[in-house]
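As a warm-up, study this chain.
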Amino acid sequence: MGISILLAFLLPHTSMQFQLVNPLLFLFLLYSFWKSRTWQPIVLLVLVPVILSILFNFQNASLKAFQSTFTILLYFACFPFVGPIRIRKFYLIFCLAYIFISQIVYLLGIPSLTAFYDMVYPISEDDLSYYGHIQNSIGYSNVFNFRLGGIYHNPNQCARYLTMLMAFFLSVNHPKNVREVIYFILISYVGVLLTGSRTGFVIASLIAYFGFLRHNRLSGLVRFMVVAIAFFGFLNILQGGTSLRALDIDSTGSANLKWSTFMYYIHTEKSTLSYLIGHLDISLFNGGYGRVMDTFDSEYGELIFRFGFIGFFCFLIFYWSVAKRLPKSQWFFFIILLWMISSTIVASYRALFIFMLFLSVVYSNHYKSKDNS
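Now compare it with the structure written out below.
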């Protein structure tokens, strides 16, 4: 399990790397079913609508669409990946340290180390625009302009994985040493601030509050540190504008473009059947709003286009069904799903693998005993 976590966070960012995991997961699924003869029926909430979308769009979808859809089916079919297990916090701390150190390396512009990261984690064309934000001089006047993605190069992606680490650490590895938890949260939080992701800042704040701060009394010094970091994070938001970029309702704001692109699809879709079960292949979408976005740039838009409204709501019902089987103290883990507004979970090879792996551990460790009866 620990090795799986290391590979999930630290492998180079190509879908091919994670496609290599699929055959192993498929064998694991067959072995687990043969050994225990048990399965989680709530998985059918996702599998059935996705299979319907495949059957009705079989002739029009590309090979890549089937490949990604098979990955989604496989990850959900393997839920939960594991039985009750305690994750050694070493693996989570190592991943956090590795990512955070990579951010600092780029921040300081250490040539030998940046060359190493660039070689192991090549910069894709999509990440070039973010990579341009990296600066080598530090000063109060420009400290909030840094957008550091570390090994991911894309700061928004980096923020997403940092929030996942934070949520998982608080869910399954809440040690008796409160100071250790505080250090983990603070480093994660600072890492998110270095990405400049405003959505990440909000999600990390919510996870820290509902996952830890709400249930623990803190000393005066710790409270001061929490308030100070939150204050600097708030300044970071003001530096880039008066509202969250991902939730900006301005005519040129990110949320407006995402929503307008989604509404463009709703108004131009001519098939009622496609509304219900989707098109399966996201490459068939041809955006036409404003700056002509060729993708939805949001998970809710992509899931509805691929699997229809039926599929989209089945995904939501699945997550709600899992949440109901967990103690309410663990519900904060699902704050991660807010990334569906401005990023992707299900539609990302790496993010879906990490999220379903983590969700499986949380569920297996805490699900109600009546599910075993």
